[in-house]
Design goal:
CATH topology of the largest domain in chain B: Gyrase A, domain 2
Largest sheet of chain B: 6 strands, antiparallel
Radius of gyration of chain B: 17 Å
Shape of chain B: globular
Strand content of chain A: 25-35%
CATH architecture of chain A: 2-Layer Sandwich
Radius of gyration of chain A: 15 Å
Distance between the termini of chain A: 27 Å
CATH class of chain A: Alpha Beta
Distance between the termini of chain B: 48 Å
Structural class of chain B: alpha+beta
Structural class of chain A: alpha+beta
Shape of chain A: globular
Strand order of the largest sheet of chain B: 1-2-8-11-10-9
Number of strands of chain B: 11
CATH superfamily of chain A: Folate-binding superfamily
Largest sheet of chain A: 4 strands, antiparallel
CATH architecture of the largest domain in chain B: 2-Layer Sandwich
Number of helices of chain B: 4
Strand content of chain B: 25-35%
Oligomer: heterodimer
Number of domains of chain A: 1
CATH topology of chain A: Folate-binding fold
Helix content of chain A: 10-25%
Strand order of the largest sheet of chain A: 3-4-5-6
Number of strands of chain A: 6
Chain lengths: ~110, ~190
């Protein structure tokens, strides 16, 4: 069972109380972007075995979107943080580095 | 005008805990920036209560103020006074970016009481309800089987539960099954 702490209401929510929102930190390519950029934005997603950054919504609780850093292979959760950001906070990156030396995810490491 | 009644019109069930439809309850959803002093004073003037902390609920004899999300409160007031309170809120918050709506008739409210109330509710929600983890003064919005619900404790043996009116019968039936005779778990 995956349990994530909602950074807004502080509740440790069970997976069934949340709805998944796919990969986090996507850059939106819209009008004016090249076809390749738009294609990658639409279709190219990470599918890692290990560290992953995702969007979740506390659907049955406060209704807010947040981000979660977790490991897809062990369901270990490294941390959750509010969605008003374009990259993970340094403390969460440090925590992942301490537990999983040498990890990479897109251009993060 | 037709006479307003609550969804289940006072239905009751007695098992290992008592389930009761609480009848008409005035509810106002208030959205806005909860850090604004204007909003705090408006809530104070309507309910006489301060703002609850994150995930909390404050009550007195006539009503409650519950924290619903970082920008949303639920004000529980007597059913007959909703329109007057709504007018006050809208006047006080006319210049603030905010929203106050009467949701009284969109909701149903139940009480679940008795020494086994904790374990009856624990069968239905993905929440740690052990004494110490969930106590009076806390408000929890969550999922009750397949529908959204929220609950808080009035005292050690009494929960109040709110859900959408359209699923009132479903929630009442869930509670009665969870509270049926002989279904004690004795977990707490």
């Amino acid at each position: 069972m995956l349990m994530l702490e909602c950074p807004y209401c502080g509740v440790t929510a069970d997976e069934t109380e949340l709805s998944p929102g796919g990969e986090a930190h996507l850059t939106r390519f819209g009008p004016g972007a090249s076809d390749d950029e738009f294609h990658d934005y639409l279709f190219m997603r990470e599918n890692p075995k290990g560290v992953h950054f995702e969007r979740w919504r506390h659907a049955y609780g406060c209704g807010k979107w947040f981000h979660a850093a977790r490991a897809t292979d062990t369901l270990e959760v490294f941390g959750t943080y509010p969605a008003q950001t374009t990259k993970p906070p340094q403390e969460i990156l440090d925590k992942i580095s301490a537990k999983r030396p040498g990890w990479t995810w897109r251009d993060l490491k | 005008m037709s006479k307003p009644v609550s969804a289940l019109n006072g239905a009751q069930f007695h098992g290992i805990a008592e389930v009761r439809d609480l009848g008409l309850q005035g509810m106002i959803t208030l959205r806005g920036d909860l850090t604004k002093p204007k909003l705090k004073s408006a809530v104070k003037s309507v309910t006489g209560l301060a703002l609850p902390k994150t995930g909390g609920i404050l009550s007195d004899e006539t009503g409650s103020v519950a924290w619903m999300s970082p920008d949303e409160l639920l004000l529980l007031v007597p059913y007959a006074e909703v329109d007057a309170h709504l007018a006050t809120l809208q006047k006080d918050l006319a210049k603030e970016h905010s929203l106050a709506v009467n949701v009284s008739d969109a909701r149903a409210m139940f009480s679940l009481s008795g020494p086994k109330a904790r374990e009856v509710l624990a069968k239905l929600v993905p929440v740690d309800l052990s004494p110490g983890a969930f106590e009076p003064g806390m408000m929890r919005r969550t999922r009750m089987a397949q529908v959204a619900a929220a609950f808080w404790m009035m005292d050690e043996d009494t929960f109040h539960i709110i859900c959408f009116r359209s699923v009132a019968r479903y929630v009442f039936d869930l509670l009665t099954v969870a509270a049926q005779e002989g279904s004690e778990v004795n977990a707490f």
